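We now fix the convention by which a protein and its fold are recorded. The integers have meaning only within a learned vocabulary of local backbone shapes. A record is reproduced here so that you can trace the correspondence yourselves:
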Amino acid sequence: MYYLNKPINSPKIIHIPKGSINKIITHLNNKNINVSKLDSLLLRFIGSPQSGWINIGKTISTRGDFLHKLTTAKAPLQNVTLIPGETTYIFLKQLSNELNLDHNVLQREYEQQTKYIEGAFVPNTYSLPMGITEKMAVKILLGESFSQMKDLSMKIFGTFNEKRWFRFVTIASIIEKESANIEEMPLVSSVIYNRIKKGMKLQMDGTLNYGKNSHVRVTPKMIKEDTSIYNTYLHSGIPAAPVCNVSFDAIKAAIFPAKTDYLYFMKSKSGKHNFSRNYSTHLANIKRATK
């Protein structure tokens, strides 16, 4: 009884892997939770720990209460969806609202845990436990995203070169912002590569929908006054960082652009784009779209 009433420190929310009780005890020790072989023995009498997220509810528990919670206290999960083309700033705002977390702390954790300004998350639906900390939420999302990126790279290239991959992510982020649909993505990609090959600036409005500007309408004034790394009217080539978080459809389009000689595209009244290889046709497309 004395042992079961001793205090034990742990996070309020912890993750328990699938496997034997001994494996779980080892996992908890690796997470700096002070459990022992005796706890392993006690769990054989109390019950088998549940796998997945467990809500301990407090950071200091009696050992008996802690072991009991391992077998009974599943944490409720909240689905959070990152849509393709969304910026990290806006996504972290969404995350703070849906999981009742501090946006400033989330932003700080993101900056501390990854070197990438943008594009480190993979758009998807993630199940996160209610009560999770900002640090752990960012860690989980970055870890799962990096794993998905690595898996896709291995399928396509047979290897994972991080620097090369994130160059494709940067190109894909422009494709994501500019394309009307998935079918257009390889065509938009071809325009990007064709313009770069000819030494032309990309001059694409979507690159200015970065960060807080994710859903802001790009105006001539904004194009003229924005001096950020994202302004492709001001700077040549692709931006120094991705504009947003990108889908695997956009990444595939960045890796495998369509073979065209297109240099321009203009959104038509239907919402899709008209692509052209010469400027006079492009001007005619602009005139039709703005009539």
